[in-house]
Amino acid sequence: MNGIDLTVIWAGIIAFAVVVYVIMDGFDLGIGILFPNFKVGPDRDTAMNSIAPVWDGNETWLVLGGGGLLAAFPLAYAIILPALYAPLIAMLLGLVLRGVAFEFRWRDPAHRARWDFAFTAGSIIATFAQGITLGALLQGITVEGRAYAGGWWEWLTPFSLLTGFALLAGYALLGCCWLIWKTEGPLQRQCYSYAGRLGILILLAIAAVSIATPFLEAEYYTRWLAYPGIIATAQIPLATLVVSVLYFRSLSKRQEAAPFFYALGLFGLSLIGLGVSMWPDVIPGRITIWQAAAPYESQLFMLVGAGIMVPIILAYTAWAYWVFRGKVGSDGYH
Amino acid sequence: MENDLAINLARAQFAFTVSFHFLFPAFTIGIASYLAVLEGLWLKTDNGVYANLYRYWLKIFAMVFAMGVVSGIVMSYQFGTNWSVFSDKAGPVIGPLMAYEVLTAFFLEAGFLGVMLFGINKVGRKLHFVATLAVAVGTFISAFWILSVNSWMQTPVGYAINDVGQFVPAAGWWDIVWNPSFPYRLLHTLLAAYLTTAFAVGAVGAWHLLKDRTNPGARKMFSMAMWMAALVAPAQIFMGDLHGLNTLEHQPAKVMAMEGHYESHPDGAPLILFGIPNSKEKRVDYAIEIPKASSLILKHDLNAPLAGLDTIADQDEPPVGIVFWSFRIMVGLGFAMLGIGLWSLFARARKKLYDWPWLHRAALVMGPSGFIAVLAGWITTEVGRQPFTVYGLLRTSESAAPLDAPAVAASLLAFVLVYFVVFGAGIVYLFKLAAKPPEAHEPTPDDAPIRSAGITPAAAVLEGDHEEGAAP
């Protein structure tokens, strides 16, 4: 071929965008999920303030994931999106409610409770829908020719609901740890108290998804559980165990930043697990990345842009986070 | 039948969501530039009125921008959820352009928006100005790419069709990006965004002048808006004419529908000012027309022949009525804008710009004109492209996702409900913000959000209760 396989590079770039999205909007959405538990007033304002300057940038990775899929793997985009019609529409509407709440709750104090509710409802809907999407993709999609050929409820199974709930727990964990890092006082104490329980919950969720996955498809079973592959794949649950021990230890030591990074580690390991199951398919068991790939010219043209822009984007995103570093307060410019 | 219903519902959903979405960027492109100008003037002159106006419009910008972002994400996924065959086929050509939009525009806007909204006390005036400029440039770049995509769908070039039926790039990317209708559409749309903003800002200024003609902020914004109206409206009419000529060259059927020309006119076509298109009988009823004027405008020759829809196969014709009317609404509003612009010049010359209530009332009434004109123009060009998604090559009826009608009906209903509630509320809040006169000490961007340690508020510094992360 052309020496370097651009299709593999693009699969890597899109995987990167998805990982960055899950991590960054994960804590935003997680704060939305936990929001009703925070006391009305300064605690809620602080939680919101901690993400107000960055949520929009975080969400943009989702657009890069979707847009990149369209550009680099148009066939996959064209099959997956209709297959997940209901959850994706729900996710988009959830993101609408979540996104406007940032502005609207400040503009209309008389109805702040309603926009706070919209913030939480939108965050929960979007998260649950993303979890379902993940599960539905893993369990397989009916394809005929170049199109989705299942019904509009095919995505709904116990497994996809399980992944939906698992992601709710996961995002809540990220949001909780973010607030431990970025806040102080009663809100931080409250988050410490949640972080332990959420940690146990996420480990149960990871375990449940991990146990169920090999039985979805024979191919998964072989990859994960047959000798000698198991020697490699067993490292992932082992590492998960190590990171979770470190996570709980950092909580008991009342460390502030470390729990967030260990939580990210748990996410990272789960996503590596996802990669092990899927690679090199973009629609597991049906379409490989090469079958779905856009022509070389399209991939090359975009790669030039991505090669130049992604490092620049990471640099100014890091700068924006740096500007808003440190603990967040609730007080404003009244 | 079932399939037709599902496709029509999907079309309704796309039209509904894109129309709502388009209102927001049409405004943010303009306000972002306006904010950059205000902050630049503030840095240059140190005149507080600019800083106050900046803060005043920044609050409005933040709301509009948020609504634009969330309604825009819907668009980027709807290509796949509802138009998957189109996405599969056109993806290799338009996908990379959309990816460039994300990489060069969306991240830029989102990355600097936080600093623009909440960071002025953290980064200093100059760096903050850089953030404002970055956001303004981002809105422009975003328009650049998405209009390139849209223009390619109208005037596709530089493609080949591969063995699985996909459009794939065949000439260079330069040809695809700069496809024949793109430069015209880009300029026409950007000027439209500036006019939209000028008339929105002008209406807010006029409203406050009607209540207090001494308010310095209201005077300044009204004056700036009227300069824009006077300068940009004639430029836009000129640009619109060029765009129309380009459309005549590449998409003649669209122009025939805009003009209501069912029949060919071998020796000079009339300009139909008004009338009721009757597609069944293929004629315009009750037409009021100027003989030969259409040939004069489109061919710069009174007697030039112009082909009509009788030269186009029925199944390739766009719906005439919608295009005919939306075009007239757009053009009519364009000339009304020109009228306001000229009136303001006259008032300025007579030193009555701030003291002519009828001018202010007229400007107030024209406040929404830009939004309506932008939508009408968008409808003209998009409906005029029908019955194709990729003009002349891929039919709309062959572009849709394999979805059942009930699924699309349910999602359409959900979009309508959520959009009306959410964006309805948002628009009410915008009116509330705009109803407050600009004050001498306009509160900073958002009156509540954001407080990181670095931006310790003055009161807290005095109380010495912040020990974290020392401010620079």
Description:
- The complex is a heterodimer of chains A (334) and B (472).
- By secondary structure, chain A is an all-alpha fold.
- Chain A has one domain (7-323).
- Chain A has helices spanning 6-34, 42-49, 55-72, 74-83, 85-107, 112-139, 158-182, 185-212, 218-225, 229-233, 235-252, 258-278, 289-292, 296-323, and strands at 143-144, 147-148, 281-283, 287-288.
- By secondary structure, chain B is mainly alpha-helical.
- Chain B has two domains: 1-179 and 404-472, no CATH class; 186-393, no CATH class.
- Chain B contains 15 helices and six strands.
- In chain B, the strands form three sheets. Chain B has a two-stranded antiparallel sheet. A two-stranded antiparallel sheet of chain B has the order 3-4. A two-stranded antiparallel sheet of chain B has the order 5-6.
- In chain B, strand 5 (388-390) and strand 6 (394-395) form a beta hairpin.
- In chain B, helix 2 (48-82) packs antiparallel against helix 3.
- Chain B is globular.
- The N and C termini of chain B lie far apart (67 Å).
- What is the gyration radius of chain B calculated from CA atoms? 24 Å
Number of helices of chain A: 14
Structural class of chain A: mainly alpha
Query: Strands of the largest sheet of chain A, in order across it?
Result: 1-2
β-sheet strand percentage of chain B: 5-15%
What is the CA-CA span between the terminal residues of chain A? 63 Å
Radius of gyration of chain A from CA coordinates:
20 Å
Mean pLDDT reading of chain A: 88
Largest sheet of chain A: 2 strands, antiparallel
**What portion of residues of chain B is helical?**
55-70%
Number of DSSP strands of chain A?
A: 4
- With helices defined by DSSP (H or I, 4 residues minimum), what is the helix count of chain B? 15
Largest sheet of chain B, if any?
Answer: 2 strands, antiparallel
Largest protein-protein interface: A-B, 78 and 90 residues
What is the β-strand count of chain B?
Answer: 6
SSE ordering of chain A = HHHHHHEEHHHHHHEEHH
Number of domains of chain A: 1
Which outline of chain A best applies? Answer: globular
The low-pLDDT segments of chain B are 445-472
Portion of residues within helices of chain A: over 70%
Count of distinct structural domains of chain B: 2
